[in-house]
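User: Quick sanity check before I run a bigger batch. Here is a single chain. Can you write out its predicted 3D structure?
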Amino acid sequence: MGAGVHGEALTPENDDIMTTAATTYAFEITLHALPVEAEPGPPLTDAWGTWPTLVVPRETLSMPMQADFDVALGRLGEMPRLYVEPDGSFVWTSSRSAPSPGVAAWQVDGNAFEKDGRVLLVDLKGRCPAEEFDRLLAAFGWPGQPLMMQLVRSAVFLGEGSFRGHAAARGLSGVGKP
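Assistant: Done. Predicted structure follows.
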């Protein structure tokens, strides 16, 4: 199975990783706007599988998202159990009461960076259910704003579909494992 320009398709060996609302994602990423100039890149093979990557022209990384920085922080501040600072740093945790059956306690640490009043990029680290991750992305204009994710340790870019498969595979193994 091949990857589209946005990396939505998973390689055959990863087809068994399905993401659902109950899926827990684990990640250490930088969130960027997906430039139209992104092209399919060489696959990444890591402890969680083989993943299609994106090659992104360096100059496009300085292009901010469509989301207004202050509006994005306001959206974050409206989310339950999310504490956000005016400088863009934030932490979001699961409820202290018993989480849903089969869902462990979770936390996401983040820092949004600004350029010309808009969100330039967002560093995200932690784990959370897939549906909560979607709520987080929505604060930055998703799904209207196409996004890509840079894996911090591998320094490669993934399209949203590849990222979701990677984060789900990593979530199955637990945070902090190789």
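The helical segments are 69-77, 130-138, 160-173.

User: Great, the batch can go ahead then.
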